[in-house]
């Protein structure tokens, strides 16, 4: 929801180094096994924010929900690099170790590479053999590479504190711990629930497929249980939208009988019915920080050595919309009249009925 982030990048004071003198930066969105390497802008290097175009892979309907996040990150990257006179090439890739890709990179004038997407052992191997400085964007679990990522602990705490503050105690979690970022969020959820004295039921943790239909079907056993959660904390908005569909199938109203909160604040979050309460990730800032870090990494051998393995985290912000409310029991308890203490008689005017 809300307008897209705007980033103003000063042209002075940035470390230019090798990047500022020559070459370009390649931005790779890595989705293992999805497709063969494909250059999004092969003939004309992009020097401005990505334009919405039917031919642009970043706007393919198949990837729209997942790619919405990356599109804003790319805009942040491009805005910083363009301010330093550096061109960019955007590419979506399913195999980082494809010989054709590696040969192309080694033969090019690329001065650096920014990789975002899914964590995978290929990422570390690619960085070791590509022959160019690499900075990761929100890919955790890869040792000895500089990375800019989301403050997952802070984001999850904001979401969980919101639900607990509304009175929820039976809170489920939706998200796979196989993803290092989601694992950080899940561990923070476990710690926060324990600190608040709330029960954690392993049966309330959905961690299977990320496909929308399979999420909706997979959650049905949880939602049909008489002691189902009154709220779900979702590892990302994609999972949260799957919970919406699951609740619709089960005939459970949101937020009347189930509260849902996500993380990311993708554009679709404000378009759900009701609009999704979520934690806003500063996607443009995430990309801008990654680009700035790449500029610094390439500004000199000593700087590269100092920053190798460094980790930068971007803070988040809770956005309360219509998908969260107090649980039914909590709402009923607020409406229920308080009985008078023993030994006292409750007095009412003659014509007043008990509330």
Q: N-to-C terminal Cα separation, in Å?
A: 41 Å
In CATH terms, what is the fold-level topology of the largest domain? Rossmann fold
Question: By CATH's scheme, which homologous superfamily of the largest domain applies?
Answer: Response regulator
> How much helix is in the residues?
25-40%
What can you see in these coordinates?
The chain is α/β, with parallel strands linked by helices and 355 residues long. The chain is 37% helix and 17% strand. It is elongated and about 65 Å long.
SSE layout and pairing:
Blueprint: H1 17-21, E1 24-30, E2 38-39, H2 64-83, E3 87-93, H3 99-107, E4 110-117, H4 121-129, E5 134-137, E6 147-150, H5 152-166, E7 171-174, H6 180-195, E8 205-206, H7 212-218, H8 220-224, E9 231-234, H9 237-250, E10 259-264, E11 277-280, H10 283-297, H11 301-307, E12 311-314, E13 317-319, H12 328-335
Parallel strand pairs: 1-3, 1-4, 4-5, 5-6, 6-12, 7-8, 7-9, 9-10, 10-11
Antiparallel strand pairs: 2-3, 11-13
């Amino acid at each position: 929801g809300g307008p897209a982030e705007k980033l103003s990048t000063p042209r002075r004071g940035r470390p230019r180094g090798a990047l500022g003198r020559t070459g370009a930066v390649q931005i790779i969105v890595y989705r293992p096994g999805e497709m063969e390497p494909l250059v999004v802008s092969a003939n004309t290097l992009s020097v401005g924010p990505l334009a919405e175009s039917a031919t642009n892979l970043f706007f393919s309907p198949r990837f729209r929900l997942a790619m919405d996040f990356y599109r804003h990150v790319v805009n942040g990257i491009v805005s910083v690099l363009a301010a330093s006179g550096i061109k960019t090439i955007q590419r979506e890739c399913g195999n980082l170790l494809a010989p054709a890709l590696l040969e192309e990179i080694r033969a090019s004038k690329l001065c650096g590479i920014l990789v975002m997407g899914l964590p995978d052992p290929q990422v570390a191997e690619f960085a070791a053999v590509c022959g160019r400085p690499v900075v990761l964007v929100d890919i955790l679990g890869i040792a000895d590479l500089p990375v800019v990522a989301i403050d997952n602990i802070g984001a999850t705490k904001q979401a969980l504190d919101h639900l607990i503050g509304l009175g929820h105690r039976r809170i489920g979690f939706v998200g796979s711990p196989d993803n290092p970022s989601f694992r950080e969020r899940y561990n923070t959820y476990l710690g926060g629930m324990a600190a608040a004295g709330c029960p954690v039921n392993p049966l309330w943790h959905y961690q299977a497929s990320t496909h929308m239909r399979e999420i909706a079907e997979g959650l049905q056993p949880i939602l049909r249980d008489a002691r189902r959660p009154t709220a779900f904390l979702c590892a990302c908005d994609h999972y949260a939208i799957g919970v919406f569909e699951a609740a619709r199938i089960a005939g459970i109203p949101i937020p009347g009988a189930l509260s849902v909160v996500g993380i990311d604040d993708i554009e679709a979050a404000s378009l759900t019915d009701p609009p999704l309460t979520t934690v806003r990730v500063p996607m443009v800032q995430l990309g801008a920080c990654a680009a700035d870090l790449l500029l610094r990494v390439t500004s000199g051998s000593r700087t590269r050595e100092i920053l190798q393995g460094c980790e930068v985290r971007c803070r988040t912000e809770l956005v309360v919309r219509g998908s969260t409310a107090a649980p039914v029991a909590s709402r009923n308890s607020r409406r229920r009249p308080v009985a008078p203490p023993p030994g006292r008689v409750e007095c009412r005017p003659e014509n007043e009925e008990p509330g």
